[in-house]
Amino acid sequence: DAKTTQxxxxxxxxxxxxxxxxxxxxxxxxxxIHWYRQLPSQGPEYVIHxxxxxxxxxxxxxxxxxxxxxxxxxxxxxxxxxxxxxYCIIKNAGNMLTFGGGTRLMVKP
Amino acid sequence: DGGxxxxxxxxxxxxxxxxxxxxxxxxxxxxxxxxxxxxGQGLRLIYYSQIVNDFQKGDIAEGYxxxxxxxxxxxxxxxxxxxxxxxxxxxxxxxxxxxxxNSPLHFGNGTRLTVT
Lengths: 109, 116
Known about the structure:
The complex is a heterodimer.
Chain A: E1 9-13, E2 18-23, E3 32-38, E4 45-50, E5 55-56, E6 61-64, E7 70-75, E8 84-91, E9 103-108
Parallel strand pairs in A: 1-9
Antiparallel strand pairs in A: 2-7, 3-4, 3-8, 5-6, 6-7, 8-9
Chain B: E1 4-7, E2 10-13, E3 19-25, E4 31-37, E5 43-51, E6 54-57, E7 64-66, E8 76-78, E9 87-94, E10 106-107, E11 111-115
Parallel strand pairs in B: 2-11
Antiparallel strand pairs in B: 1-3, 3-8, 4-5, 4-9, 5-6, 7-8, 9-10, 9-11
């Protein structure tokens, strides 16, 4: 299974964009990139997923590098409610979702 | 509104006692999962079930047991054989793992178990 590398923590100012990076250099052609986030004392919630093309939804955007070895989750305007741990996960038909340490995002007012 | 309900939110037990954590979903999902989370760590898979009356061990199944007698329910028993049971336990469901492995997991809000 492909491994992911994320920074342990990041800081952002409220109402500014946030770019959360993820490296997955061993990703294979049929692996999807999933992002979840976990607010304090809650279960994780799905954010977005993609294969090759950039993806947008109401929560965030996912930018995938051309070689697919890295991706970036973009929150366009961070709010205090976006403070959470963000998990980047590589998913294929054969594996389960594996949640590593993730990136703890802190948002300053 | 559909969702996953885990109860209770906090649970305290004495060492040596078995304890059962409840997980109920009304999303009509086939697949259900149990994860364990320790402080500051990611989630680790304990057990999963893709269909009623069937379940498989995850990465850390030792000391745990499950049942799946009904589609909507997937209780987890933490037995006295689990050496370090104090943790945050999360239940999740998915429409059908086989049909669409990319469909999002829906999580409950967890049960925090403390064993002393």
